[in-house]
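quick q for whoever's on today - can somebody do inverse folding on this one?? i tried earlier but teh output was garbage lol. tokens:
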């Protein structure tokens, strides 16, 4: 029978990457190499993939932020929940107590991983299959609440799909940052252009007023010229209407 591991065998060094294995050998991963905030954390067969590897960032004595190698996001409690069954997901690094975890070694080399905020343990529930979503639960000293932390010594496998997702996210982030960086320049340009535009409007105002004033006699003359024509047209329309009414009246009398 192989001797049990000693507690000294679990040594966490910041900057190195580790797998976090459940009792059945499956490891903790970010589901579907999802890089978004809120992506679920689950168990899966160890494929030596970057989204299954974690960096323990020291945040105090035995307290860590647990950062995914692929997404660079942290293990976090959904909505900062502290009750049994609160889901564990990933979120960008923040000064939030929901991202703090205490690693408690045991005498056989395994550890318990406890939420510093909730005082409850990282737990997969009673399920063991691939896709089991992680949660926190009160410490019941169950075998499912013990984890084995192993240093990654092999080069992680690459994935074309995962790399494409990451590259797309990086490009979108770069574009967003570029737009954000350009905003002050645009605002400054608009601010600088405003006095110029106002000056141009002010300079043009006398010319516009002059043009309007010069056009007034022309407009008045055109109206005066058109007046007899309009009056004649109106008079002709009245006469035509009167004749039509007379014809209708005469027909009506003949029928009687």
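ok took a stab at it. sequence:
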């Amino acid at each position: 029978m192989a001797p049990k591991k000693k507690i000294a065998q679990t040594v966490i060094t910041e900057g190195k990457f580790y797998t976090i294995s459940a009792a059945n050998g499956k490891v903790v991963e970010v589901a579907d190499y999802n890089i978004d905030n809120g992506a679920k954390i689950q168990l899966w067969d160890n494929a030596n993939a970057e989204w299954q590897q974690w960096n323990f960032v020291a945040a105090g004595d035995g307290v860590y932020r647990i950062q995914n190698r692929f997404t660079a996001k942290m293990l976090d409690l959904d909505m900062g929940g502290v009750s049994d069954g609160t889901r564990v997901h990933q979120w960008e690094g923040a000064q939030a107590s929901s991202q703090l975890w205490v690693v408690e070694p045991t005498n056989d080399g395994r550890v318990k991983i406890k939420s510093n905020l909730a005082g409850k343990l990282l737990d997969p529930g009673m399920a063991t299959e691939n896709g089991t979503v992680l949660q926190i639960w009160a410490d019941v000293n169950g075998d499912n609440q013990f984890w084995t932390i192993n240093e990654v010594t092999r080069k992680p496998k690459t994935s074309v799909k995962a790399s494409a997702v990451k590259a797309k996210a990086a490009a979108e982030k770069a574009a967003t940052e570029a737009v954000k960086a350009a905003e002050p320049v645009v605002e400054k340009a608009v601010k600088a252009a405003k006095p110029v535009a106002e000056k141009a409007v002010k300079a043009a105002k006398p010319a516009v007023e002059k043009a309007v004033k010069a056009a007034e006699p022309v407009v008045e003359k055109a109206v005066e010229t058109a007046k007899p024509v309009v009056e004649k047209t109106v008079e002709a329309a009245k006469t035509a209407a009167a004749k039509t009414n007379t014809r209708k009246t005469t027909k009506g009398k003949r029928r009687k």
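fwiw Residues 1-8 have pLDDT under 50 and may be disordered. also Residues 195 and 201 are 10 Å apart (CA to CA). so keep that in mind when u check it
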